[in-house]
């Protein structure tokens, strides 16, 4: 794991070293290192670059999956981690220090498919269960065709594609499936890594998106931006009100209309809002409440907190829709600011 993270971050550092060297002469720049979720990678690549241009600090982010981000923070080899699935109470007790979460944006996990000649598909909860449990194996199965009148589906095998690495995207998808399917809940359940009943694995959102785009007859789940970027078709998914919905900024935002807890740890899947896209969720940055660890300087700690504050600022949030993520609701921003106000260095407020 350490070798993988080192390699990923080394490549990223090489690409950014020119800018860093220029800015450090001004005496303000700090190199920050982070790793984790691939789901928000397009958003993070954009805003971290913008932050670097504005402040001179370099943010080197390795998209290695949420599981890798949590492990990197646990090993204390990063300034902060990133995950699409929050740490539960048991995971928090296993960390060497108190870990805090702040959400950075909202996104959708889309059901992407590659069926030659087909660009529109409606999938009910029952169909999602049967496809991803391996109970329906052909695209022209009567159960699919009867739910998609006017769409000509081929007599082609269904190939399910899922994540092979520990993934917050998997956790969001599995959380939704558990809420809509008793069979899924009892036989597969929720987690960043699952014992899949059917399908092939691929690493990261880019890996799953690439496999789907190259495999006729395939279906899988990925962050929406990856589907847009590779022009992969997305299915309309049935929400809790029975409506078939595509992910848009508006339908993703509708999923977060309820109360948000003070620590922001909440799953937003299968929202009761009739306009919501049902596989929506926050993605978080995670960090230690006390920033004095692994010989980090106080300046490093302050720069980390400054970046985290900037991430929930109006300026950064306004960038999210440009890459098909929804900005945080006002309630989530306020909760994030309150959390950041508690961060310390050797017990002293920053």
Automatic annotation (TrEMBL):
Record GO biological process: phosphate ion transmembrane transport
Organism domain of life: Bacteria
Residues making up the signal peptide according to the UniProt record: 1-20
Entry keyword annotation includes rRNA-binding: no
Entry-linked SUPFAM superfamilies: Periplasmic binding protein-like II (SSF53850)
Gene Ontology molecular function: any one: phosphate ion binding
Keywords: Phosphate transport, Signal, Transport
Gene3D superfamilies named among the record's database cross-references: Periplasmic binding protein-like II
Sequence ranges assigned to domain PBP in this UniProt record: 26-314
UniProt GO cellular component terms: ATP-binding cassette (ABC) transporter complex
Quaternary organization: The complex is composed of two ATP-binding proteins (PstB), two transmembrane proteins (PstC and PstA) and a solute-binding protein (PstS).
Family: Belongs to the PstS family.
Function summary: Part of the ABC transporter complex PstSACB involved in phosphate import.
Identification of the protein by name: Phosphate-binding protein
């Amino acid at each position: 794991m350490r070798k993988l993270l080192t390699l990923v971050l080394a490549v990223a550092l090489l690409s950014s070293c020119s800018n860093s060297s220029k800015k450090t002469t001004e005496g303000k720049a700090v190199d920050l290192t982070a790793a984790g979720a691939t789901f928000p990678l397009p958003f993070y690549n954009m805003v971290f670059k913008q932050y670097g241009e504005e402040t001179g600090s370099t943010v080197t982010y390795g998209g290695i999956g949420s599981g890798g981000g949590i492990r990197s923070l646990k090993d204390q080899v990063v300034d902060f981690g990133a995950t699409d699935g929050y740490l539960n109470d048991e995971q928090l007790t296993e960390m060497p220090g108190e870990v805090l979460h702040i959400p950075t944006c909202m996104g959708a996990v889309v059901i992407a498919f590659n069926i030659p000649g087909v660009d529109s598909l409606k999938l009910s909860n029952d169909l999602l269960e049967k496809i991803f449990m391996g109970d329906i194996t052909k695209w022209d199965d009567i159960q699919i065709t009867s739910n998609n009148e006017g769409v000509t589906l081929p007599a082609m095998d269904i190939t399910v594609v899922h994540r092979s690495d520990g993934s917050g995207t998997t956790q969001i998808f599995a959380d939704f499936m558990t809420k809509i399917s008793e069979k899924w809940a009892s036989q597969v359940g929720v987690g960043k890594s699952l014992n899949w009943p059917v399908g092939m694995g691929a690493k990261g959102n880019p890996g799953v998106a690439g496999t789907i785009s190259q495999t006729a007859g395939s279906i899988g789940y990925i962050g929406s931006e990856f589907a847009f970027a590779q022009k992969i078709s997305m299915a309309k998914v049935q929400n809790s009100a029975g409506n078939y919905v595509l992910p848009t900024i508006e339908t993703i935002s509708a999923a977060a209309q309820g109360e948000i807890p003070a620590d922001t740890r909440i799953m937003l899947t299968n929202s009761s809002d009739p306009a919501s896209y049902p596989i929506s969720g926050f993605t978080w940055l995670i960090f230690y409440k006390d920033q004095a660890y692994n010989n980090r300087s106080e300046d490093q700690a302050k720069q980390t907190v400054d970046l985290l504050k900037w991430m929930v600022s109006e300026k950064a949030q306004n960038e999210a829709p440009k890459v098909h993520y929804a900005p945080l609701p006002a309630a989530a921003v306020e909760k994030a600011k309150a959390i950041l106000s508690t961060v310390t260095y050797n017990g002293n407020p920053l």
